[in-house]
Q: What sequence folds into this?
């Protein structure tokens, strides 16, 4: 008897699950139907700021696989289809499309509903010219607005990854840029000293920072935004971009009686099974396990979504796969400044009950005498008692950020800073000093650890 698999959400988690399941089970054994509320599936949301900036030539370049390609795989993709409810007992979902409302039965269900962008509940928030950048449609609309209205002044609300990347995109369009954040620093996932370096970089690129200011509303004229109001005053704006973060889009699962975790994400086991029989979940809508803090977290990253979706598809396809958790590795950039982090910040380490210490080292991305050598600051956070690496942060110029990967691997494997000093990292003058910045930071941390005994 043929099994019917229904997927809610047509991006990284959902379509990775559908593709993996299809590779293992033919259409005669497994029918697959995927529902996507938007107009695009299987695209890189992380590429949207670079599409807006002009680094990516066209929206289609961000699409990994079109509906027609899924059709050739015998996966039925239905666009502009909004799933309104799930009935886990009767085994059907309710769907609203442009033309009708109907029910779709399932034997197996994958929930990959992604994240919900934070939208401020303040006066004027529905004015034209206020843009989020979560979906590919959002990016296309923003490009259209830039072309039609030729704004001069942009206000970016939120100083996280999206805020940083969109500030650069607006600079690339020649706009005056103001960045507003309620925190005292941009990139609050970094420690204050490293976040301060990011603030310096923003100012050096010409971005005006309004830190420690709370958004109170927007003013408009003829329905179009003309200014941003904070608790410190008014900021003129022809365009506003929201980068206030996201929360797991778990409302559909919650309404169906599926267990939701403390973070607001759907709770799953290691195989990505939810509390409902035959129902799986993957991507930004789920809660996952942080391997360092040993606590549940909800971290919205395409890397996690693809891996989780792959695990779901393998399991539905008859194999066995798990998602073992995360350490919170992420990178971003603002013009020439690269930013990276993995593991726990100093505050997060303390919150998780660790007695932690940190060191910050300065080095260069290449041998100091080699042309193109750039500055890099590396921060390591480690446990006082054991010397185990707990987290790391990097701020520097070209060639800096991807060094976080070596630190992420060490973190994943529970290495101590002393063990890290002997890592056999590559060396040649065009790529690194003889002591790579990662090794310098590990050595300084090991020396600091010795002073505690």
A:
């Amino acid at each position: 008897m043929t099994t019917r698999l229904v997927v809610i959400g047509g991006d990284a988690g959902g379509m990775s699950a559908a593709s993996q399941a299809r590779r293992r089970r033919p259409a005669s054994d497994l029918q697959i139907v995927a529902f996507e509320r938007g107009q695009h599936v299987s695209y890189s949301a992380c590429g949207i700021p670079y599409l807006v900036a002009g680094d990516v030539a066209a929206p289609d370049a961000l699409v990994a696989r079109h509906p027609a390609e899924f059709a050739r795989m015998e996966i039925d993709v239905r666009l502009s289809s909004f799933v309104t409810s799930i009935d886990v007992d009767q085994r059907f979902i309710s769907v609203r499309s442009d033309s009708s409302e109907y029910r779709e039965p399932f034997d197996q269900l994958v929930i990959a509903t992604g994240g919900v962008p934070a939208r401020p509940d303040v006066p004027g928030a529905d004015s034209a010219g206020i843009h989020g950048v979560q979906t590919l449609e959002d990016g296309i609309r923003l490009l259209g607005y830039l072309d039609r209205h030729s704004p001069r002044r942009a206000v970016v609300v939120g100083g996280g990854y999206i805020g940083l990347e969109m500030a650069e995109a607006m600079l690339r369009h020649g706009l005056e840029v103001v960045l507003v954040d309620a925190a005292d620093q941009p990139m609050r996932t970094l420690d204050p000293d490293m976040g301060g370096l990011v603030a310096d970089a923003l100012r050096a690129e010409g971005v005006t920072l309004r830190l420690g200011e709370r958004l109170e509303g927007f003013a408009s004229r003829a329905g179009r935004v003309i200014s941003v109001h904070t608790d410190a005053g008014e900021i003129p704006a022809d365009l506003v971009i929201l980068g206030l973060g996201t929360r797991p889009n778990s409302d559909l699962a919650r309404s169906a009686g599926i267990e939701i975790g403390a973070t607001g994400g759907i709770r799953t086991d290691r195989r990505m099974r939810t509390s409902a029989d035959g129902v799986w979940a993957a991507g930004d809508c789920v809660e996952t396990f942080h391997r360092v803090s040993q606590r549940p977290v909800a971290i919205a990253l395409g890397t996690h979504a693809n891996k989780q979706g792959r695990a779901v598809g393998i399991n539905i396809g008859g194999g066995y796969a798990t998602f073992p958790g995360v350490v919170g590795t992420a990178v971003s950039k603002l013009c020439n400044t690269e930013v990276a982090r993995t593991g726990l910040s100093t505050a997060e380490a303390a919150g998780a009950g660790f007695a932690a210490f940190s060191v910050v080292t300065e080095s260069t991305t290449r041998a100091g005498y080699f042309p193109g050598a750039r500055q890099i600051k590396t921060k390591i956070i480690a446990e006082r008692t054991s010397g185990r690496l707990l987290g790391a942060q990097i701020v520097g110029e070209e060639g800096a950020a991807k060094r976080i990967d070596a630190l992420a691997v060490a973190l994943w494997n529970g290495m101590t800073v002393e063990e890290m000093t002997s890592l056999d990292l590559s060396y040649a003058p065009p790529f690194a000093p003889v002591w790579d910045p990662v090794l310098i930071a590990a050595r300084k941390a090991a020396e600091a650890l010795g002073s505690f005994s």
Observations:
- The chain has twelve helices and 25 strands.
- The mean pLDDT is 96.
- The chain has three domains: 3-46+61-116+247-316, 130-244, 330-448.
